[in-house]
Amino acid sequence: MTDFRFFSTDDDEVVRGLRSLYAAPAGDAYWNELESRIMARVADVELGWWTELDRWVRPALLAAAALLLTAGIAMFRAHQDESDLAVESMLASPSVPVSTAVRPALESDREARIRYLFGCNNQEPSCSAQNSKR
Amino acid sequence: MTAATTIELPYGMTSFSDGKPDEKALVIAAQRGLSEAFAQLVRLHQRRAYAVCRAIVLTHEDAEDAVQEGFLHAFKALDRFLPDQPFGAWLYRIMANASLDLVRRRKVRDADELPEAIPMPFRDPGESDELRRRLNLALTKLTDRQRSVIVLHDVEGFTHGEIGEMLGIPEGTARSDLHHARASLRKILKDVRSDL
Q1: Chain B residues 141-160 within an 8 A CB cutoff of chain A
Q2: Which H helix or E strand runs over A109?
Q3: pLDDT of residue B3
Q4: Going by C-beta distance under 8 Å and a sequence separation of 6 or more, which residues neighbour residue A64?
Q5: Which residues in B lie closer than 8 A to residue A17 (C-beta atoms)?
Q6: Contact A34 B193 (CB under 8 A)
Q7: What confidence tens digit (pLDDT) does each residue in B69-85 have?
Q8: Of A117-121, B24-28, B53-57, B106-110, which gets the smallest average pLDDT?
Q9: DSSP label at B151?
Q10: Does residue B68 belong to the interface with chain A, where contact is any CB pair within 8 Å?
Q11: Candidates B50, B55, B76; nearest CB to A45
Q12: A110, A131, B21, B104 - which has most CB atoms within 10 Å?
């Protein structure tokens, strides 16, 4: 038959019943096994790819820094060489007078344009004066 | 158990003082990467951790899962733990969170097929099936939180404040949950008795 003593309204009976229901597994074997499972999962975390990654972070950073330094030096040298070359080519090239660089034909065009802008005519004396001033 | 095992801790620390494991030393050693120190902490706390999880989840299997998850979280967060704080309180909060997460996941998964009764907890062959069945029936009438609170308080002996911290509720709420849970169980068990 049923154990009617359990159905007492006394809290102690309820607590006793709850304790029996929620009793943790007994026996060291169970707990040793649970501990092993927990530690196996912890070991997985320790040996995870991020741990491996973590191990390579420092060498990778050093390598990246060395690479950056090398690239920086190379770029600096290349820039310096380019500047040297530009300076050398500037110094080496013969200086050309500006006047000779203007085509003679352009000379007359320019004058015609100026005359047009100032509304001058070659025949007018004021224009001739201005022209002579220029 | 291997609680009596002495482990070699680095940096001149001792793992035992007055015959008891020096928890702080173990925590510091574990933080410095000594896995045997963490194993020792697992050994020290796994029973209580299981009890906390078991009070929150519905089955023994879920409690096992939550304990493993909880220890894993604790291991990952160990660097952030201050060794001067009580390790147990910190760990049980993590266990409670892992259990609550698991309950939430189960609820989402089983939304369409809610169990009619709380599944049987871990079975002790010596226990009466009848007693278990009737108490289980009474427990189904409680809310999840009321059930957790009454088990954590009456079975595991946690204080209202500790329960409040673990479950993320005010201490007063834990107190009133306990009161309502006890009253409900008393009433339900009384009703069942009168039906027999």
Answers
A1: 150-151, 154-155
A2: helix A104-117
A3: 44
A4: none
A5: 131, 135
A6: no
A7: 999 999 999 989 998 88
A8: A117-121
A9: I
A10: yes
A11: B76
A12: B21
Residue B195 is predicted with a pLDDT of 56
Distance CA A103, CA B65 (A): 93
Query: Distance between CA atoms of A116 and B196, rounded to whole angstroms?
Result: 126
pLDDT at B13 over 70: no
Distance CA B16, CA B20 (A): 5
Instruction: Tell me which H or E stretch contains B20.
Output: strand B20-21
Cβ pair B99, B52 in contact under 8 A: yes
pLDDT digits (tens, 9 = 90+) for B140-166: 888 989 999 999 998 889 999 999 999
- Average pLDDT of chain B is 81
Question: Does pTM surpass 0.90?
Answer: no
Q: What number of H helices and E strands is found in chain B?
A: 8, 2
Spatial neighbors of B73 by CB under 8 A, at least 6 apart, are: B94, B97, B98
Indicate the residue of B64, B68, B186 with minimum beta-carbon distance to A14.
B186
What's the complex ipTM? 0.75
Spell out the residues 6+ positions from residue A41 whose beta carbon is closer than 8 angstroms to its own: B68, B71, B72
Query: What is the pLDDT, as a whole number, of residue B134?
Result: 75
C-alpha to C-alpha distance for A124 and B77, rounded to whole angstroms: 99
> Could you report the per-residue pLDDT of B87-117, keeping only the tens digit for each?
999 999 999 999 999 998 887 877 655 555 4
Task: Tell me which of A1, A3, A14, A22 to substitute to probe the interface with B (most B C-beta atoms closer than 10 Å).
Answer: A22
- Please give the Cα distance from A82 to B81 (Å, whole number): 58
Q: What is the CA radius of gyration of chain B?
A: 19
Query: B83: distance to nearest CA of chain A, Å?
Result: 20
What is the chain B residue with the closest CA to A26? B124
Do residue A34 and residue B131 have CB atoms under 8 angstroms apart?
no
